[in-house]
Design a protein that fits this description.
Blueprint (H helix, E strand, L loop, with lengths): L2 H17 L3 H8 L3 H15 L1 H35 L1
Helix pairs in contact: 1-3, 1-4, 2-3, 3-4
């Protein structure tokens, strides 16, 4: 694996853990695709640091469990702001 990819993988992992970030927000922050972030933190990170990979997995599983709640809040805000106009 090339050095810059390994560096990106570790930066992504630490960012996701530190901020409880979603794959989408991490992708936006690092200016890469969601697919790249997902591959980095699920496949490549396992080869580099398995312990860190398990921490990231916990965060991502928690985000997945809360996904429906965030979607509901976004919909509520959408209609609230449309009502104000």
């Amino acid at each position: 694996m090339k050095d810059y990819i390994e560096e990106r993988v570790l930066e992504l992992a630490h960012y996701i853990i530190d901020t409880n970030s979603t794959v989408r927000s991490a992708a936006k922050k690092f200016r890469v695709s969601k697919s790249t972030v997902h591959k980095d933190v699920t496949e490549r990170l396992l080869e580099i640091n398995a312990a860190l990979a398990s921490e990231v997995k916990e965060v991502l599983e928690n985000n997945k469990a809360e996904r429906h709640l965030r979607g509901g809040m976004a919909t509520r805000e959408k209609y609230r702001s449309a009502k104000e106009k």
